[in-house]
Amino acid sequence: MTKEDIKKVVLEIISEIAPDEDLSNVQSDVRLREQLDLDSMDFLDIVMELRKKHGIEVPEEDYQQLASLDSCADYLTPKFAGAGA
Amino acid sequence: MEVSKGDSTFDTIIIGCGMAGLAAGIRLAMFGKRVVILEKHNAPGGLNSFYFQGGRKFDVGLHAVTNFVERGRGTPLGTLLRQLRLPWDAFKLCPQNSSRIAFPGSNLKFTNEFEVLESEVAREFPRDIDAFRALRKLVLEHDALNLEGKVTSARKIVSGIVANPILQDMLFCPLMYYGSARERDMDFDQFVTLWKAIFEEGFSRPLEGVRVIIRALLDRYRSLGGVRKMRCAVKRILTDGSEAKGVELENGELLTARQIISTAGLPETEVLCGADRHAETIRCNVGRLSFGETISFLSEEPAAMGCDETIVFFNDSERFHYEQAKQPFDLRSGVICIPNNYQYPGNQVLQEGILRITGIASHDYWTGIDEETYRREKEEWFPRIVSSALRFLPGMKVENVESRTVYRDMFTPRTIEKYTSRFGGAVYGSPEKAKNGQTAWRNLFIAGTDQGFLGIVGAMLSGISIANRNILMGKER
To answer: Which candidate in B11, B31, B73, B477 is best for mutational testing of the A interface (most A CBs within 10 A)?
Structure first.
């Protein structure tokens, strides 16, 4: 899975969690919380969906790695590779 | 999910099918947990349930859904709808008209716009308006949802800012009535939570009452494969050392699970785990406040009879006394709720006028009398409660209410205890809260009233928070 694919996966998850957010202009290098109305409970849901849909575990101490789409892609790339996706 | 008879192993058992239990169940089922909700009664809803009588539908508990916002994130209602993945209109909430705090010689009107209360305080208490604003600033800056927060006295903090005792009491009155398990004082976290829920956000109600909310939760839970067993009382929680293993039901059936969430209340849960109901450690944690309510169905719209207000919190004494009733019913203060007076869409109206009057009532009195005396005493107290409250609705005459009453009912602490199994009929639970949900057993958690988030929205958020923190994020998963 490429980094672009991973960003798409994360955006898809956010669209399920927060259907009322406009995701058309999300910038990859800006923190998601600065662009979207997401709180810590929403980030928990991103983590839960990654586990449910893709079998990927994100330990609590790594939640901060999901701050922006770029950091998500960097952090998740080896995990997706490891999960055989 | 169909459960065959022999199916008795779950990831999580939830005790109680109220708002907290359902919300926790939805969260867990959403992420693939095998969940079962066990409910003693045949109706769901717990402390916010409903019943049918005389061809009419009655809500218990719910006067108003607090925390109402039209839209907007970062609010408890927004958070909970998103967490449960329910659409904004799932609960069909309609805003209130206006409400009032009525004390001798002083009235403070408030609506879902905070500015109304602020200008009312400026009008009634011009010398205290700066202090009121300073208190509000403190409230807005306080993080009340911190699950590790310490218990602090709201009376102490508020009186340190607002010097006028009457204004203090007027602000405490609705907040205490809508959630304080403690007499005379509140934990400051709860003061802040309720201030935001009532004064900053506001009151709302679905046209068809609490059933709309319960139905939305049940549908969501069912669609995720959650299992629910009604008329299924838990006899005891099976423990082994510091571990909860499962439950034994009244019918003898055994269910096991990796975790248990109990919404039965803190002392109630400890007794289910084997503690002696009459032990001092249990008794001192039983809430001392219980309530009674009269419900009058009227042949005319209350607005046409002279009252278009939604909720009126009243007190007739020099100071406001929020404490265990020494009389069968404490007539000095109370809450009047008129469910007709919400802004329902289109021209929708309730079929009849409804007048509900709630006040502090003595649990020991109402549970200590025989059936015959109980019926007679309810008859006796009903008109006294109504006329006492109507002192604060100048537009509504006692004789008009009496002549237009087509049906009536009354509940007391005896009714509450019977249907909710709360010791002492304490709807707001124990004065001791388990804020982080944890108990002496590592995999047994408390959610709902005795976790400490209050009201319908608070109860649902409690279920969500406890499921998230202790099960979905925790080592227990």
So the answer is: B73
Residue B80's closest chain A neighbor by CA? A41
- Asked if B24 contacts B466 with a C-beta cutoff of 8 angstroms, the reply is yes
Alpha helices in B196-327 (DSSP H): 210-223, 266-272, 280-283
Cβ atoms of B244 and B260 within 8 Å: the answer is yes
Distance from CA of A43 to the nearest CA of B (A): 11
Q: Among B82, B464, B472, select the one facing A48 at the smallest CB separation.
A: B472
Taking the complete model, does pTM exceed 0.80, yes or no? yes
To the nearest whole Å, the CA of B37 is away from the closest chain A CA by 22
H or E segment and range at residue B388: helix B371-390
Q: Which stretches of B122-217 are assigned E, i.e. beta strand?
A: 204-205
For A42, the closest chain B residue by CA position comes to B83
Contact B74 A39 (CB under 8 A): yes
Closest among B177, B20, B208 to B101, alpha carbons compared:
B177
**B55 — contact with chain A (CB < 8 Å)?**
no
- Nearest by CB: A17 against B31, B74, B82: B82
Per-position pLDDT tens, chain B of length 477: 444 445 899 999 999 999 999 999 999 999 999 999 999 999 999 999 989 998 998 998 889 999 999 876 678 999 999 999 999 999 999 999 999 999 999 999 999 999 999 999 999 999 999 999 999 999 999 987 777 778 899 999 999 999 999 999 999 999 999 999 999 999 999 999 999 999 999 999 999 999 999 999 999 999 999 999 999 999 999 999 999 999 999 999 999 999 999 999 999 999 999 999 999 999 999 999 999 999 999 999 999 999 999 999 999 999 999 999 999 999 999 999 999 999 999 989 999 999 999 999 999 999 999 999 999 999 999 999 999 999 999 999 999 999 999 999 999 999 999 999 999 999 999 999 999 999 999 999 999 999 988 889 999 999 999 999 999 987 544
Q: How far is A37 from chain B (nearest CA, A)?
A: 7
